[in-house]
Amino acid sequence: MSSALNIIKIILLSIIAVALVGLLIVALNGKIKINGIDLVEKTELVYENTFSEPVENLNIVTTNNDVKIEEKETEGIEVKIYDRKDAKPTAEVKDNTLYIDNIDEVRIGFSFGINGNSRIEITVPKGTTYNLKVEGTSSDVDSLINLKEVNIDTKSGDINLKDSINTIINTTSGDILVGDTNKLEITTTSGDIKTGNVKESIYAKATSGDFLLGDINGKLTLNTTSGDIKINSVNLTKDSSIKVISGDVVISKTNDIYIDAHATSGDIKVNTNNRKSDYELKINTTSGDIIVNN
Fold it and tell me: Which pLDDT does position 2 carry in this prediction?
């Protein structure tokens, strides 16, 4: 009898689990209400303005708005914000800085939901560049323009940047794509990192995620717990290091440097090595291969 009851319980739990998954899928498509409450809160244009004042910096603070920056033939900076109809974003230019603030206060009681496609759209005059600072909780950041100094701090969300002068990114979860830059600093817990060419230095630390890097010049410091590291080329002018707990390290090309490679469990293949070089690259893996095709 108890065996039959257990089987019935398993079947009922399976049915409930399937129903909940289906409910979530429908909710995420914005097609369901419970007692008149949208599980996915509808978004609409809640703010629109064009700023003609001189601007050098873009400073954005948001809770869960995606941020998109693009350019076109326009006289000023156009800002559009899509959110819940009761959202109260602000934007102003002060001291050559465009401040955009859209903090979503904690909602209590039965007023809840998943924000659907809430976003901040910024359109700047074609050919202009700015310093960019973004603070967000759950926000994708997508910049289709070249930037100067970049500082992004988010909890989750993908980051996609074109070229910049210097870039600092601190996030917990999300893939990161960065174009060419002089100095690059990335700290993330989970997510892949892909870069263009780095002219002076790169520091990247991740708990989980692959690194796919372009041409790295100057100095590199890479540290990941789980993930492969692949680098197109390395041209060092300072001592550097790579540390991986679980993952392979593959470098396609280096300048004339000494490579001090150690693998606890894995193969090591370094084509050429100059112990008399002025610059050293230390590579350590606990579990993974090291391949340097220099």
Answer: 55
